[in-house]
Amino acid sequence: MPSEVAGKSKTGRHFVNGLAKGLAIIRAFNDDARALTLAEAATRTGLSRAAARRIMMTLEDLGFTARQDERHFVLTPKVLSLGYAYLASMPLWAFAEPMLETLVEEMRETCAIAVPDGTELVYVLRIPIHRILNDGATVGSRRPMHCHSAGRVLLSGMSPVQLDNYFARAEIKAYTEHTITDPARLRRAIFEAGAKGYAFVNGELQENISGVSVPILSPDGAVLAALNVSFNRRNVLESTVLRKTLPKLRRAAEHLHIALDAARSGERRVVKMGRVQRKK
């Protein structure tokens, strides 16, 4: 898909075109394109071949790309530093990982935290169980929001204007026969997720995958992220799943909210499952 960089859409006087082109080249790599030629990079970003060559070689000089062979370039692990900068800048992640590990041990299911990015959600933390989910998801993986329980929770936290903008931009397509694609039905499901404080989705993204998600609230009460537990089996009974998992998810989400509030207030506290202690 050509990048918006080529058309210079949504730009202002502040816009640094070279930076946008560099980011477009980095984002051109994915699971289907782990190595790219200059021509392929140009096609995927909408840049000229000459521009793609200059940007790719600059990224190589900086250590973000490397040559796989004479024609192909690949990303290097240094690219991970860009994502780490995001995680390190968010106080939530400092205490979320041990809390998520505790949840996985208690429930024996895969747990994750997701945030919105455009019309998709992105996993910023994910801890699988040994019974690996067959969905190929890792930290940084993206999923459509409309057919994912975490996505429904994130959408429920949007303002009416933001939600209208989402529906105008998102590709709301069917992934299984159970996927809700009707805008009116989907809006009702999003509203219900907000009213109930959780979302349960069964077989809408993949037939055998279901999940429950609850919101993680910022200190101001806005939906910052979604805490999710996933199940890799068919015919999951909603009432049973909610009885076993919802109290644990809500408890963990509340502790993360408290930890965020403590971090913002500048108080030195130790956050544990079940209580918050002042550090002596």
Biggest sheet statistics: 6 strands, antiparallel
Order of helices and strands: HHHEEHHEEEHHHEEEHEE
Helical/strand content category: alpha+beta
Residue ranges: pLDDT <50 for 5 or more in a row? 267-280
Shape: globular
Average pLDDT works out at 84
CATH class categorisation of the largest domain: Alpha Beta
Look up the CATH topology of the largest domain: Beta-Lactamase
**Number of separate helices:** 9
| Total domain modules | 2
Measured between the Cα atoms of the first and last residue, the distance is: 54 Å
Helix content: 40-55%
* Number of strand elements: 10
> Which value, in Å, is the CA radius of gyration?
21 Å
The proportion of strand residues reads 15-25%
Strand order in the sheet with the most strands: 5-4-3-8-7-6
- CATH-level-2 architecture of the largest domain: 2-Layer Sandwich
Can you tell me the CATH superfamily of the largest domain? Answer: GAF domain
Which features characterize this protein?
Beta-Lactamase; alpha+beta; disordered C terminus; Arc Repressor Mutant, subunit A; 280 residues; six-stranded antiparallel β-sheet; 2 domains; two-stranded antiparallel ribbon
